[in-house]
Amino acid sequence: MPTVLAEVEWEACPLEPHRDAELESYVRRTYGALPSSVAYFTPVPWLVRSMPALSVVGAPPLHFDTVLADLIGLVVSQDNSCRYCFGMQRLLLRVRGIPEAHIRELEQNYLEAEIDPRTKAALDFARRLSRAAPRVGALDLAEVRDAGWSPDAIRELAFQSAYCVYMNRLMTISAIPFARAERLATSRLVRWFAPLWRWRLQRRLQTSRESALLSDGGADDAPWSSLVKALSGTNCARPLRETLDAAFASPVLSRRAKALIFAVVARGLDCRLSEREALGVLSETGLDAGEIESILTHLASPRLDEFESALLPFARGTIRGSPAQLQQRTPALAAKYGEARTVEAIGIAALANAVCRLGAVTELG
Amino acid sequence: MSAVEAAGIALAGVALAFALLWLRARRADARARARLSTATVELERLEHAFARFAPMELVERVIARGVPTSGERKEVTVLFADLVGFTPLSQSVEPSTLVRILNGYFERMSRAITAHQGHISTLIGDGILALFGALEANPWQTNDAVQAALGMRAELAAYNEELAASGLPKLALGVGVHRGWGIAGLVGSSELMQFTVVGNVVSVAARVQGLTREHGVDVLVTAAAQQALDPRFVLRALPPAELKGIAEPVSTFALL
Questions:
Q1: What is the SS3 assignment for B50?
Q2: Interface of B with A in 183-222 (CB under 8 A)
Q3: What is the Cβ-side half-sphere exposure of residue A345, based on CA atoms within 13 angstroms?
């Protein structure tokens, strides 16, 4: 691929793929395809289900088309140097009929690419939300609103960017092999299969649009309810609520371990809303406010067990950095604590990175 | 040859000439596209490389709109490192050997700093100015800076063994770590510009580094940095010292 991504270091995947007929059939049924990455996440079912559930298929946008969703996926994945997701997004754009020259222009010269100002504002906003350096704030929201996007559309743009962050983190922290995705992304054969594939994708999207139910965000006392409620009026609220509930209900990691990961990521990204929510969950698990503050200040505490202590630097290492940096702690975690716990830790860290970046939508009013 | 045949041959000749011209133009176009593609990849590579020295948003702003003149007030942790006894060393070895020793030293120190989320802002002779929390907000910046200092200590010990094995003199390090507020931004002239932090926070770190010689220790942490530090780091309190250009005496702690 003629981009700098071809030079990005990517470690060997420390996870083994495991086939699971039921989960695979679910993904194929909802997504319309079975990405090769699915087999690496089967030890944690909620994680596999979240992949299509949070995508445009499970949460179809009401205010922009899927091409813009895929363009967001392309630029955010490139920014995050996620070789797997970048290959997949490139493939999807080709299937949707976007000319190769336009895709290449975006990849190689984003700042100068010929994009209409409204789309450019949406893509810039998505990149800023994903980078979170600094975290998206009132000025960024005003800028995208001035470009003609309504508050509901901005919520969907933010969700789309956060979904890409989620997928990028999942694939990158796990170091999922990307060769097949990259090969497909540039394959000449895609041109021949694209019309049929496009037709299937459109049909699936149509079905999901018809069946998607707008949700008000669920119960008020559920964790992150204020964030989920901020998305009400879009198709994103319900799948996010369901994913958060399934993630916290999963028996692989303790509730405290998951809340610790969320709290560390929230502190690293300065997301007060997510930190408050994570502290709420942590306080139910026997830690008082002083202990939690000490844990988050120094990423260590004698009150934590060995696995929880290992999760703190792991979670911190997922916030920023190159793929090699994000992948640094995964092999040791997998070797010492087993695959299922590692996969769930990766899933929670990815979800925390997405949710904490998404926190900005609550400022839309 | 009939007139029709002659016209046919002429027409074929013209068609062949057009085909050749078209082929040449296509080849030239392909070459130009390849050059353009290489250039844009080079540009992208540069953009990514610059992101190691300045925030990505700033890099893009510079590319799109030129150099911004504004700075941003940020709380940062500054690590200032200097080689102890560098002047006598520079007089005792060949220039080429000195450069080799220095490059090996910078390579190892840089590794220790970047491994702990720091970035090197400036190399001043044998001195290093490293910043933590300047590129991106980092709530763990002071722990990172002190971890980096420990990493530098370990790297230097390993490097000294290599130097000794080659019959070269060993190096000694002085490090000052301070936390405070400074102005972060692009500073310099049109000839040379760098992303750095300016303000008292840098001066204090540099002066505290100078204090390491007086106290006979290699790493000193100011009280402002110590307050943000994980209590598991083992520190020894030292008496407050007057520093040149700093109004109040500065309390420091030696990192054991």
A1: helix
A2: none
A3: 31
Q: Which residues of A touch B41 (CB under 8 A)?
A: 2-4, 108
User: Residue A227: left (phi > 0), alpha (psi -120 to 50), or beta?
Assistant: alpha
Does A225-364 carry CATH code 3.40.190.10?
Answer: no
3-state secondary structure of A8: coil
Same fold, A4-211 and A225-364: yes
A/B interface, count of CB pairs below 8 Å: 53
pTM of the full structure: 0.86
Indicate yes or no: CB of B136 within 8 angstroms of CB of A3.
Answer: no
Domain ranges (residues) in chain A: 4-211, 225-364
Residue A133 parent element (H or E): none
- CB proximity list for A72: less than 8 A, separation 6 or greater: A122, A123, A126, A157, A160, A161, A164
Return the domain boundaries, chain B: 1-50, 66-255
| Contact flag A300-B230 (C-beta cutoff 8 Å) | yes
User: At B250, is the secondary structure helix, strand, or coil?
Assistant: strand
Q: Is B232 on the interface with A (CB under 8 A)?
A: yes
Specify whether the CB–CB gap between B207 and B243 falls below 8 A: yes
pLDDT at residue A41, rounded to an integer: 98
Spatial CB neighbours of A242, under 8 Å, sequence gap ≥ 6: A53
Q: Predicted confidence band at B63 (pLDDT cuts at 50, 70, 90)?
A: low
Where does B66-255 sit in CATH, by number?
3.30.70.1230
Asked if B233 is an interface residue toward chain A (Cβ–Cβ < 8 A), one would say: no
Q: May I ask the CATH class of domain A4-211? A: mainly alpha
**DSSP H helical ranges for A217-320:** 225-230, 237-249, 255-268, 272-283, 289-298, 306-316
- Residue A154: phi and psi, rounded to 5, are -65, -40
Higher-pLDDT residue of B92, B190 = B92
Write the DSSP string, A55-86.
STTTS--SSS-HHHHHHHHHHHHHHTT-HHHH
Task: Please list every residue in chain A whose beta carbon sits closer than 8 Å to the beta carbon of residue B135.
Answer: 133
Put simply, the answer to whether B57 touches A131 (Cβ < 8 Å) is yes
Length of chain B: 256
Interface check A297 vs B, CB under 8 A: yes
| Residue B176, beta-bridge partner list | B80, B220
CB A82 within 8 A of CB A168: yes
Q: What does the pLDDT look like over A317-337, one tens digit per residue? A: 999 988 999 999 999 999 999
Tokens found for residue A133: 């350096």
Establish whether the linkage from the previous residue to B169 is cis, with ω within 30° of 0: no
Cα B207 from chain centroid?
21
- B139 close contact with A: CB closer than 8 A: yes
Cα–Cα distance for residue pair A124/A120, rounded to 1 Å: 6
Residue B31 token pair: 């070459």
ipTM of the modeled complex:
0.84
Exposed, middle or buried: residue B88 (CB in 10 Å: 0-12, 13-18, 19+)? exposed
Q: Determine contact, residues A353/A365, Cβ cutoff 8 Å.
A: no
Please tell me what DSSP assigns to residue A6. Answer: G
Residue A90 one-letter amino acid: R
Q: Please tell me which residue, A260 or A186, carries the higher pLDDT value.
A: A260
Tokens read off for A196: 């049929």
- Specify whether the CB–CB gap between A86 and A179 falls below 8 A: no
- Alpha carbon distance, N-terminus to C-terminus of chain B: 103
The shortest C-alpha distance from A269 to chain B (Å) reads: 8
